[in-house]
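Class prep. Write one:
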Amino acid sequence: MSTQLADGHCVPCSKKAIREQGLSKLSDADARAKLSELEHGWSLAPQPTLAHAQETYPPALHKVYRFRNFATASRFASQVGQDADAEGHHPAILLEWGSVAIWWWSHSLGGLHQNDYIMAARTDRLASQAEGTSLWKRPLDLAYFLFFAMHLFASMCVDIPSHYVPAPLRDVLRDYLLKSQDPLVPNTWAPRYAWFRMSLFSEFVLQVPAFVLGLYAFWTDDKRAYPVLIGYGAIACFTTLQCIAMVTIGEERLMLSEANLTFILQNYIPFMLIPGIMMVDMTLRCMRLMPRPATLAHAKSQ
């Protein structure tokens, strides 16, 4: 439910919009019930007032996010501010060392509205993307990390020219060829497989460095590597798809037994699906990191 909320858009809450659309704040009971739509940690608490201030505030959606250092907390607060500007709906933010406290409520309505729950869900999304989160708390990134480590090993066995490969790793390749009877790898230098030779070259020159960069980026949660990982995912996914097509619907299929084909596909399909998923995932992450454009409805309300 929180994901669906985060993908929503706020409606204008200007005085004009309130009059024309009949907007009103949520009742206390409804506001408390809707907490179940958000991730754990949100509560109803009023925004604190300044010293000597006479004004009191109604209950707001409140949560405290904790980070490993002030710089990470500051960047997170800035991202929340950019998203708030894009929607024209702004929270109270208290930035301290390693923590950011947030209060969402609709000032023009004097209470809580659906807009506040949308922005609270978005704040959770931004927090999950904030730099400095441990790899062990990012299960998808952990899966990518392990895949890159395994793929780097596989590249050392299969894709790099054999005279560069240590003898124990050559034994792994020999075992794979024996079980699979893979028609591509042994015939890399045949004229009809020039495309496959170029694929191995691209893996050696482009993808292996991407594995090293990706391992570092996932370990440190460095988002600057996302564009490189998008490129890697596109190349790896569609190159492996070509190989799958060759052994399933090409002439090479006639050379393989059912056992050979099953073994080949067990090795090929993960190396197509995971990069494809990574390509889509990293593209979506990049989109979420970009400032959201102001909505048409918000622009008209200004």
